[in-house]
Specification:
By secondary structure, the protein is an alpha/beta fold. It folds into two domains: 279 residues, Aspartate Aminotransferase, domain 2 (3-Layer(aba) Sandwich), CATH 3.40.640; 131 residues, Aspartate Aminotransferase, domain 1 (Alpha-Beta Complex). It is built from 18 helices and twelve strands. Strands 1-7-6-5-4-2-3 form a seven-stranded mixed sheet, sandwiched between helices. Helix 1 packs antiparallel against helix 3 and helix 3 runs parallel beside helix 13. The chain starts with 9 loop residues before the first helix and ends with a helix. The mean pLDDT is 94.
Length: 429
């Protein structure tokens, strides 16, 4: 029996999936730095505009990107994937592929601030309404949020930065009862810690800028199609089941079966928006993914040790880290994140905004950057940075306190990380 037949471990998949060199070919995924592809006949090119089965233009498909897409799809246990130029682009296209002007979708309120703005402000201008729900609410309460025009449900496995844990099975059950898919942003968990498809999710998105890359060298995103949602049976998505006039009358469910969602997204949205990454960016992303499984284990270990230290500090009001037994989402973390709760911690410092800023400015090892999920420890004050655009009410809904610090624990020696946090705390009153 071959390794593929015996279902390789995820560590092996991180290294080998997506690309298999043939005799004499490069062992490492090559960078195909070309925008165009040559064909033998005009007829062949014409055929690609009816059925895009080969690479023809790097605005929406490229061999290097394709290899990484296949790898991520396999890691998540999905049917197909499409890279994007950013995590925001992935979130945007995941919704636009389903919702039209006049439609609505439901989202958990405790999600990334940039996504909140995208959903609440930008998509509103497109005529698409986002209906916010408390992810800890009962199924009955969440059900009340649905409208006749609701087309999807969206949440984050681990919310950024509130670090709440999404009850994926609950939300999948509610979504499916209403004939719509569940989209899960799995950025913080990565497929190493959680695979949402195994719990009923239909579509997964990532900001690949974060842990998948891990080295802060490329900005990117990805959408993964689980291949399980029945667009035909739902009856709510004629754009999947009826001819697409913008692409020669193709019917996505008929022609592409269980990957209809990702093909439609590529052929319609990526074609028109062109937010596809470069081959070089995909190459760098692949290098990061190769060590993902090893890195995530150490992130989780380091973060738990730092969280335990912060819990004991008399200068800290509260610590949010689902890996802690005292965390209110610990039981959900044990269910969905049994191998660890990522490397991100949020905590609230006594004294509010001023004290939080002083702590930030006193850090020496940790970097003050607009970034998270790096090999290097870094810190951010969400209320004045990533969530600056939110109102006080939105901050509360997103689980943000003015004294909150988001600490992304890196791969340095954990004693060095704790020492840095300790010395910075010692400088605040």
């Amino acid at each position: 029996m071959s390794n593929k037949q015996r279902n390789e471990g995820i560590e092996t998949k991180c290294i080998h999936s997506g690309y298999t060199p043939q005799n004499g070919e490069p062992r490492v995924v090559p960078i195909v730095q070309s925008t165009t592809y040559s064909f033998d006949s005009t007829e062949q090119i014409a055929g690609l505009f009816d059925m895009p089965t080969e690479f023809m233009y790097s605005r929406f498909a490229n061999p290097t990107c394709d290899a990484v897409e296949k790898k991520i799809a396999e890691l998540e246990g999905g049917a197909a994937a499409m890279l994007t130029s950013s995590g925001q682009a992935a979130s945007l296209l995941s919704i636009l592929n389903i919702c039209n002007a006049g439609d609505s979708f439901i989202a958990a309120s405790a999600i990334y601030g940039g996504t909140i703005n995208l959903f609440a402000v930008t998509l509103k201008r497109f005529g698409i309404e986002c209906i916010w729900v408390d992810q800890d609410a009962s199924e009955e309460e969440i059900q009340k949020a649905f409208k006749d025009n609701t087309k999807a449900v969206f949440g984050e496995t681990l919310a950024n930065p509130a670090l709440t844990v999404l009850d994926i099975e609950k939300f999948a059950s509610i979504a499916h009862k209403n004939g719509v898919p569940l989209i899960v942003d799995n950025t913080f968990a990565t497929p190493i810690l959680c695979r949402p498809f195994e719990h009923g999710a239909d579509i997964v998105v990532h900001s690949t800028t974060k842990y998948l890359d891990g080295h802060a060298v490329q900005v990117g995103g990805v959408i993964v199609d689980g291949g399980t949602f029945d667009w035909t049976a739902s009856g709510k998505f004629p754009e999947f089941t009826e001819p697409d006039e913008s692409y020669h009358g193709v019917i996505y469910t008929r022609e592409f079966g269980n990957i209809a969602y990702i093909i439609k997204c590529r052929m319609q949205l990526m074609r028109d928006f062109g937010c596809y990454p470069s081959a070089h960016s995909a190459f760098l992303l692949n290098l990061g993914i190769e060590t993902l499984a090893v890195r995530m284990k150490q992130y989780c270990y380091n973060a738990l040790e730092v969280a335990k230290f912060l819990e004991k500090s008399d200068k800290v009001i509260s610590v949010n880290y689902p890996g802690l037994e005292t965390d209110k989402h610990h039981s959900l973390a044990k269910k969905y994140l049994p191998d660890g709760a990522s490397g991100v911690i949020t905590f609230v410092i006594k004294g509010g905004r001023e004290t939080a800023v002083k702590f930030m400015d006193s850090l020496e090892l940790a970097s003050r950057v607009v970034h998270v999920a790096d090999i290097r420890t870094c810190a951010l004050h969400p209320a004045s940075a990533t969530h600056r655009q939110l109102t006080d009410e939105q901050l509360v809904a997103a689980g943000i306190n003015a004294g909150m610090i988001r600490l992304s624990v890196g791969l340095e020696n954990v004693e060095d990380i704790i020492y840095d946090v300790e010395q910075a705390l010692s400088k605040i009153e």
